[in-house]
Structures are given as C-alpha cells and as structure tokens.
Amino acid sequence: MSFEAIVIGGNFAGLSAAMQLARARRRVLLVDAGAPRNRFSEASHGFLGQDGQTPAAIMQEGKRQLSLYPTIAIRQGKVVRANSDGDAFIVGTEDGGEERAARIVLATGVSDTLPEIPGLKERWGRSALHCPYCHGFEVSGGKLGVLANHPHSAHSAMMIPDWGVTTFFTQALFEPDEEQLAKLTGRGARIERSPIVELLGDNPKLEAVRLADGRVVPLDAVFVAPKTAMASPVAEQLGCAFDDGPFGPIIRTGDNKETTVKGVFAAGDAASAMHNATLASASGVLAGVHCHQSLVMRTAA
Asked: What residues does the FAD/NAD(P)-binding domain cover (predicted)?
C-alpha cells in the first residue's frame, strides 16, 4: 500500500487535515479537483493571519508548505469513485487512476443552488453574499437586503442590521411570525413582501433590485443562504450516513470527525452545518489528528 491515508479535497479543510498527517510522517495523498466552493469570492475574511487574502492565494501557499514534507504527494484531479476493499479503501480518479489507502479523509465540500433570480448567480460571492461574518464588514454602512429562501431567513435578517440598514424580503414564501416580526422591527429592519425578481447594476456591483410590483429598491448587497448538496458522490458511495442540515445534507461524524464508516473521516462544509473558513480549517485539523491516531491504533492492535 503506497499511501496510508488519502485526503480528498484541497481547500481549507483538506489542506489542514493533510498537514497534520504529513507532520506525523505518514504517507499521504492529497487529491484536489481545483474547484473550491469559495472560488467566487475576491477575498477570505475573518481567517486569522489570512484576512483579505484571496482563497486561491491561501490554498496555493498551503500546498507549497505541504509539498515541503517528504511523505506527502499532491495530485490535481477529480475523485469519481471510492469503495472499501477488506481493511483498505480504493479511490478512483476521473483520468482512470486508482490508489489504495487504509484511511480516507473526505474534504469534498458542497455545491450551492441559488434561487432562480436574474442577476443573482453572476454576483455570487461579490455583492450577493452568504455570510455576514465573512463579508459583512466590506459592505457595512450600505443598504443591505436579506432574501428569504429558507425557514431560518428571519433569524439571519436579525443579524444584518449590525452592518447596515436592512430590508428583509420575504419573497412571499417565508412570512415572519409575530415574535420574529417584533424582533425584526426592534432591530430596525424593514419588511418587504413583494418578491425580488431581478438584481440590477453593473455586474458584479449591485445597485438595486426590481420587485414583482415594478418598484426598484436601492441595495448595495444582498445576503442569501443557498441550498447545498454534496459536491462529490464519494461519501454516499462509501456508505456514509447523512444528517439533515438547515440548508442540505451533511455527512454525519462523531466528535473525532470519523463518519459512520470506520476508517473514513470527514471535515469542512460537507460535514458541518456552519460554513466558515476558520471552522473548515479547524475541522480539518481534527480530522487529520484523529485519522493519525486511528492509524496508530491499527498498527498497535
């Protein structure tokens, strides 16, 4: 067996997991498809020591640092299949390659599905945003909107007034209840019940939104939580169990980041309901550390 562990995914979670295993002098293969979820963002914020850096620059530097460790191999490619084979796992890539390892770390991420509103997809990660902690400071002081597309949207709208004057667009789908309405009003948020039908402005800049009743409302940024799905079929192929997250399925893990399949660990957005660069990196550290300890216990038995 040429590798002891294979890490699938080379974004913040995968790189962090691979670093722990490499520092433990384990033979590790990192396979990265090169299509991270955060590729649409101009910068990563709130990540200590990396604030304002582009996600691509952070990942490039991470791979450079990893490459200095003699027991790690980094390959560009897309993993399309994985299965167990006795006490090992077989991983197959899109180009027909195949590798075996005793352990797998899934850092495969999620894919986003946005509401079908003209102009929204083109502004994703720029002026159409998902996380105020990641991007709120950069649009603070402006006219901000929250587009309701899930039951927790009203809660999200209660947070946004800390960054700017806020309008909560119910989209005629998620009307706040009496308690939510009182809290939103108390926070100074305006409630708009006519749905957004188009985003306006010189893309990727947002200047206003057009409503179903024809009105145009000035906006500098809009927050929306996309629905998510697994970006890779590998977790399902391996037989991992899933939980229902607020925006889509997440891979079920224990405190040690091991999935319901022994020897398979998971980290990052695919295994967490909270999506944030720092949290993804931290979960990758945990997955890498516990994966290493699992390898130790395997040989010590």
From this structure: 5-128
